[in-house]
Amino acid sequence: MAGPDIDSATTIIVTEAPPDSKTRRYDRQLRLWAASGQNALESSRLLVISGSATSTSILKNLVLPGIGHFTILDPAKVTPEDAGNNFFLEGPSSIGRFRAEEAVRLLGELNEGAEGKADLRSLEEVLEKDKDWLTEFTIVIAHNLEAGLLERLSALLWQDESFPPLVVVRSAGFLAEFYIQFHEHAVIESHSETVPSLRIDKPFPALLDYSASLDFENMDVTDHGHIPYVYILVRVLEEWKKSHNGNPPSSYDEKKEFKKIIVGMKKKIDEENFDEAEAQAYRCWTSTIVPSEIRALFQDPKVNSLTPKSAPFFHLVAALAKFTEEQPPNTLPLTSTLPDMKASTNSYISLQKLYKARAEEEKTFFKSYLTVPVDDATIDAFVKNAHALKLLRGKRWGALDKDPSAIAAAVESAPKQLSIHLSLSALSSLSTKQQPNAPLTVTIEALVAEAQALLPAGTDLPENFAEAVGEIVRAPTADLPNTAALLGGMVAQEVIKMITKQYIPIDGSCLIDLIETWTGVL
Fold this sequence. Notes:
Helix content is 47%, strand content 10%. The strands form 2 sheets. Strands 3-2-1-4-5-6-9-10 form an 8-stranded mixed β-sheet, sandwiched between helices. A two-stranded antiparallel sheet has the order 7-8. By secondary structure, it is α/β, with parallel strands linked by helices. The chain has helices at residues 21-25, 27-42, 53-63, 80-85, 99-108, 123-129, 131-134, 147-157, 205-213, 221-224, 229-242, 252-264, 272-279, 282-285, 292-298, 312-326, 345-367, 376-384, 404-413, 415-432, 444-454, 465-474, 481-500; strands at 45-49, 69-73, 115-119, 139-143, 166-172, 175-181, 184-187, 390-393, 510-513, 518-521. It is built from 23 helices and 10 strands.
């Protein structure tokens, strides 16, 4: 037999361009928050107040993923204590140098793409002479700030919704707390585990027609075992409705009978796609509706009082409300994202094309309801995640301590978390009453008195308070490396959520106990 005529054929080798250095460096995190999240990080400007061990640990976990700029505001010089607990100082050689400059220099070695700056002014000076500078950042982080300065900073950043969020971090020994002060935080890409509806109970025309056209009886056995469960369920449901007054199964017996019909369609006992259809049968009697949390957004005051200057999120929600009201089947826009299922490659791709075509049609209808320009990438993300939108409204730092009823309730519902919060608040309050530059003297009796003053009259301290206050007395000023390391990871994670506007940030105070190794939210 003659071989192939190699000379008469042209071989074309298609190769993909190798990923650039940025993609290689950030590969894993790009899988978490994609290019849009990475761009947000690289455009961010962070202000960190103090160059403590905790502050630099937080920054380490923000510099590595590629924040654009960070400034450390700290006039202090490195002490022997700093050199002993801060990994971003060079031991004895850093002693006597400015802490901010040393930390910026060494943090910068982690990622040349992150710009760092040391500002040697005190926060008090900035608040007095240059407070507008504080509002120019994307987010502000403050660690163990003196109570009076923290109150002034918090008040300043709360004055306007456009001012940056404030992350308050407090720690002493093995106990810690952090809180994010923000007015409003809208999340489109929440990465919810709730999957969008496939609309099996309300199939669009192309899906219904294709499902009805399949000849299950005369189909090849191999093809029969690779029909996606979506087609199976749509077909069985439509036939069921014909004999049940247009209604899906409702009672237990009806649902059992419905599943029996699906299993009875098997040609071979090992057809996993029909087993999958049986397991997914609940989709047939689970009505596709607008989730209550999304419908609640439609009534938000900012949605109902739109102006051209309103944030795009509210314009998108308003358009979504009109879409669900006017476009049949009066539910959220279809997404082309499909779950994995037992199917042949060709049948799965065919199903995917049906969903993608319909999703594009509905997205076009959706865009017609927008009254202001919104970029296509944002619209795509919004439509894809319309089932899991989140709008968080925060409170100013200190709101809990000014709400007697909330504190009284927390004594009963979250005594361990409240004990740490009260202990750290008592330490902060006591510190302001010490003589300037005098050694901090902390006693259990003094802390108990300060904590009791925060409680409503007649309310006892939580039962866990004694353990928490004991750790505060033991190490009132200790910025321990292991506490700093854990705080560094946790705080950085929440800061990234705020910057990228992806995933859901912690809402409230996060309390950390490294003695008993637990965390909680208050």
